[in-house]
Amino acid sequence: MSLETEIAALAATNNKLVEAVNGKMAAINAAVASAISAAPEMYRTFFVDPVAGSDTEGQGSAASPFKTIQKAINATPLGGRCDATLLRDFSLSTHILLNGRKLALRGELNAGRKLILNEFMFEGETLPRMGSFWHSDGSTLDISNLTVSFPASSPGDLSAYYCLSFGSGTSAPIFHQLRFYNCTLELRGTFRGRIFGPNTGLYGLQLSSTVLPSGLAGLILPGVVAGTKSETIPHLITNLSSL
To answer: Could you give the CA distance from residue 47 to residue 237 in angstroms, rounded to a whole number?
Structure first.
């Protein structure tokens, strides 16, 4: 076999190898693109209107909002972030289950929206609870541009879960996070609940452009009395100097 024939054979073999590699790369790129397009979008933006919205017909847009915050959370993939904007004042008389989602609950800037927390009786219990957010796994809560209105507490004993934010059971988050940004914290009477509930090992609380009313002093963490210096509480990370 002549040298020219051997070179031609090698070139042909090389071309086949290049074609095979290019074919494999095209298949790999197509598979990656298909996997990316099939993956759920982890950041969702929704609008909630308790009057004009619908959890069955609504799409979660400003023109077609959901009726409840819970629907917006449920429409967000597990482990994702739900950015929910309230188009009207929202009265909360139940627990909102975060189920591992990160919730950013907000009102439109300068719209004067309220999140109104009310008492309710949890099924099978005799002590009242209040509208709140039930954390699990890696869930977080960020509230901004809202007036958060706390109820006047009923006389007598209250549930340990009479609080704004809590975790419970084996899925309670290791680090329980809550942030208020540009919020007003309003008391409609004597409030005797808590900001945080029990069953979490480490808490994180940040208030930005938000003033803590004197009536909430001593009502941040279970077992922590008013005036306690934050630096003395090993299981709390906060920008407040005292509770």
So the answer is: 31
Task: Decide if 75 contacts 60 (C-beta within 8 A).
Answer: yes
DSSP symbol at 189: S
Count the neighbouring beta carbons within 10 Å of the beta carbon of residue 59: 13
**Distance between CA atoms of 219 and 226, rounded to whole angstroms?**
7
Q: Which helix (H) or strand (E) holds 163?
A: strand 163-167
User: pTM of the prediction?
Assistant: 0.84
- Spatial neighbors of 73 by CB under 8 A, at least 6 apart, are 82, 84, 96, 97, 98, 99, 101, 103
Query: Quick one: pLDDT at residue 41?
Result: 84
Report helix, strand or coil for 201: coil
Q: Which fold has domain 41-238?
A: Pectate Lyase C-like (2.160.20)
More confidently predicted of 190 and 31: 190
